[in-house]
Specification:
The chain is 29% helix and 28% strand. It has six helices and eight strands, in the order E-H-E-E-H-H-E-H-E-E-H-H-E-E. Strand 7 (179-189) and strand 8 (198-199) form a beta hairpin.
Length: 200
């Protein structure tokens, strides 16, 4: 196993991360503009990856967008803005988020705190702690740390789903030539009821 950098955010930093992602989404959707992070909190200068998820609160809810990078070299503030814009674009879930949807979308941010390249994914994976990134040749796929908890998946199911997202065999995570990276991250999100940001 090999480890990467470690980044930890305070609750206030996490709440600001979600706020920044929301601002970036709204600026992009309403005006087609890229939000600039502006004067950033100290933690946002760390160079690490980040993911942004957009989920609809209408009906049974559905994923409206998810984007980001676990191995980013950008400063965190810029990584959040970039992920938010990509999540809101048509490249993410097939259709761009529209202005009328904004009030019915919740924003969450996963800030990568550590990454571990593992040779034994099933043994090393901790459900609820790790996200998963799979690399097989030119195929790449990743899933958020909260996804298996939300769906009641086992470790093997989580790894298989990450492979499917990468469009490779569901059992590819067991192959020696497939790289599996476990992603530790802090997840902060808007509450669907409009309350304060929560850390998951």
């Amino acid at each position: 196993m090999s480890e990467a950098q470690t980044v930890r955010l305070s609750y206030d930093d996490g709440a600001r991360a979600v706020e920044l992602a929301r601002e970036a989404v709204e600026s992009f959707v309403r005006h087609g503009q890229r939000e600039q992070p502006g004067s950033m909190r100290e933690a946002f200068y760390a160079r690490t990856g980040a993911f942004v998820r957009l989920e609809s609160t209408r009906g049974r809810g559905r994923l409206r967008g998810c984007a980001g990078a676990w191995d980013g070299s950008d400063q965190l503030g810029h990584a959040i803005v970039e992920a938010a814009i990509k999540a809101a674009s048509g490249d993410s879930c097939g259709s761009e988020v529209e202005p009328k949807e904004l009030e019915n979308i919740t924003v969450s941010v996963c800030v990568v705190s550590n990454t571990v390249l593992t040779n034994d994914p099933l043994e090393d994976l901790e459900i609820g702690t790790h996200g998963v990134a799979v690399d097989g040749g030119n195929a790449h796929g990743w899933l958020y740390p909260t996804v298996p908890v939300e769906n009641g998946w086992s470790g093997a199911e989580f790894l298989s789903r990450a492979c499917r997202k990468a469009k490779i065999s569901p059992t590819a995570w067991q192959d020696d030539d497939t790289m599996v990276t476990l992603i530790e991250g802090q997840v902060f999100r808007e509450r669907p009821d409009g309350g304060a940001v929560e850390e998951l």
